[in-house]
Amino acid sequence: MKLKWSAIIFGTLIDIALSIALSFFVLIVYASSLAAKGMAEADIQLQLSDPLSSSYFALILMAVGALTDGVAGYLTAKFAGFLEYWHALFMIATVMLVHAILRGESMIPLWYEIVAQILGVMAALYGARRYKKRPR
Question: Residue 25 carries which DSSP code?
Answer without folding.
Answer: H
